Amino acid sequence: MKIDLTGRRALIAGGSRGIGLAIARSFAAAGADVAICARQIASLESAAASLRALGRRVSARACDLSRAEEVRNWVEAAAQDLGGIDILVNNASAFGRTDDEAGWAASVQIDLMAPVRASSAALPYLERQGGSIIHISSISGLGASVRTPPYGAVKAALMEYTQTQAAALARKRIRVNCIAPGSIFFEGGTWDRFRRENPALYEGTLAGIPSGRFGAPEEVAHVATFLVSDQASWVTGQTVAVDGGQSL
């Protein structure tokens, strides 16, 4: 099955590394023009260079997704850069771990309200021709998340929001789906850090994955690329776990 996204214009929030960058690369390889945002300028520029090497039009802008005005400004600027919006991927996360005001505030603002705000800003463009929204959640939202209470609760809320959006937007030819990754390893990422700083957690988590390994960002990107393609034209309101059986 060959997926062709030629002519599509895709926005990926949190697209400078890890899962977000893998999704942007997969979309670009399939023919889409892409816009990414992140807070760190250095990683943003490096990511943009790798995407331009694929021969597609690329927009890369700094954005603090915890700030409502910056989210709206980024979506509008990216739409102008690419000439419209066909796809929106909400990938950024604060990874809120602490069960306190700071942990909850960060998770709510970035993991939940940024997708709400980005969706609202992108909607006028998506309504013109239909399109697709993908939210990146986590298997932490599928059950108890004792180690990371804010992260798990907010990711669960994102799954419910996916269903609500899908039902509300279906008649406008806008599909909304969610991906719940398991533990994904990439250099410089969370599990790379735990491997060095908390090997007991790293090894314990690895031992609990039936597939016997951590996932790769590209494995999430493949599912995202399918979900925004015409091959998934009757798929909406769904959450797909990409976790090697970890949630089992």
Description of the structure:
It is a single chain. With 248 residues, this protein is of the alpha/beta class. It has helices spanning 18-29, 41-52, 68-82, 101-129, 149-169, 190-197, 199-207, 217-227, and strands at residues 9-13, 33-38, 58-62, 87-90, 131-136, 174-181, 239-242. It has a 7-stranded parallel β-sheet, sandwiched between helices. α1 packs across α8 and α4 runs parallel beside α5 (149-169). It starts with 8 loop residues before the first strand and ends in a 6-residue tail after the last strand.
Which SSEs are present, and which pair or pack?
Elements: E1 9-13, H1 18-29, E2 33-38, H2 41-52, E3 58-62, H3 68-82, E4 87-90, H4 101-129, E5 131-136, H5 149-169, E6 174-181, H6 190-197, H7 199-207, H8 217-227, E7 239-242
Parallel strand pairs: 1-2, 1-4, 2-3, 4-5, 5-6, 6-7
Helix pairs in contact: 1-8, 3-4, 4-5, 6-7
Summarize the structure.
This protein is α/β, with parallel strands linked by helices.
Primary descriptors:
alpha/beta; 47% helix; 7 strands; 7-stranded parallel sheet; 248 residues
What is the average per-residue confidence, as pLDDT, rounded to a whole number? 96
* Large-scale geometry: globular
Rg over C-alpha atoms, rounded to the nearest angstrom:
17 Å
Regions with pLDDT < 50 over 5+ consecutive residues? none
Strand order of the largest sheet: 3-2-1-4-5-6-7
Structural class: alpha/beta
